[in-house]
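In full, the data:

***
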Amino acid sequence: MRNGLRAVLFCAVMAIVWSNTGVGAAPPTTRSFASARFALEIGGTIVGFVNAVEGGLAFGSVVKVAGEDYFFKKHLGNLGFRDIRLEFGADMEESLYQSISLALQGQQVRLSGAILSADFNGDVRRRLEFQEAQITEVTFPALDATSKDTAKMSIVLSPEHTSVNRKASGKLNVTSAKSQKRWLPANFRLSIDGIDTTKVSKVEALTVKLPRNTFGECRLCENLPGPTKVDFPDLVMTTGEPADALYDWFEAFAIQGNNDEASEKSGALEYLSSDLKTVLFTLNFKNLGIFELAPIGPDAAGSTVPKLLATMYCEKMDFVVP
C-alpha cells in the first residue's frame, strides 16, 4: 500500500518604515524615515527597539451621498485609526512576548504606549501614542536551514485611539540597548510525536489572526471584521526522504480515514540561538492532523535530493517564553 501511495504522490536593510498605510487597505503614499530608530514603549517603559513600524495614524472616512446632481456629494464621516504593524527580533523585553503568549491563549490583551522616533544620536523627534490596542495578528518567521538572514517576528496592534506628538523631546540611549540575540531562520528544532523530523529543512511562516472587539463609533472598521475565534494556521514543512513514518501517518489518517482525535499528534517548534542549544521561544502544537503530502522538485540551488512537502492542520498553538 505504501508503494502505491508513493506512486500516487509522485504523480501529483532592514527597512524601517513608519507610514500612513492601513493594514488590509489600499496604501496611501508611504512615508519613510531612513535615518531613524524606533523604540517601543508600553505602560511608560521602553521594551526595546523595533526593526520596522507601519501604520497607526488617524484617518477620516468619506461618505458619498447620491442627490439630484449627476455626481456624488461627499463629506467626512467618522474618524478611525490605522492598525500598527511592528517587526522585531528576539531582543525585546520579556513582557512583550508574554503579552503575545496571552493573546494566543485567547485572552483579551490591551496595550497602551508609544512608538518613539529618534535620530541616530538618540534625540527623540516624535511620539506616536496609542491607547487600548489589541494584538490582532502575530506572525512567526519562516525557517530555512540554508538561510543566513536575521529572523524577525511581527505583530499587528489595533488601537482604540492614536495621536502624534511632533514636538516630543528626550533622549534614548541607543548604545545601551539590550544586546540583540542572534536569531537566524536556520536555527530551529521541530518535533512531532512519532515522526522523524531530523530531515526537516524548512518550516513556512505561521500567521495567527486573533479576534478583535469593536470600540464604538470612533473606531472605523477599515480593517475588515476579524475572526470570532482563533483559527490557528496550518503547519507546513519540507523534509527529506526516506520518511516512512510520515507516509504511514498520511496513509492511515487521510487515505484510510483513521483521523479521529486519538490519531492527531502533538509537536513543538523551538527557535534556537546561534549556539543551537539555547531556546529563545517555543511554539507548542496541539491536535495536528496531516492532510497533504506531496513530492517537490529541485530547489533553487539545483538539489536533486528527494523531498516532501507535508501540510498539517493545527487546532491550537501555545507560545512559550523560557
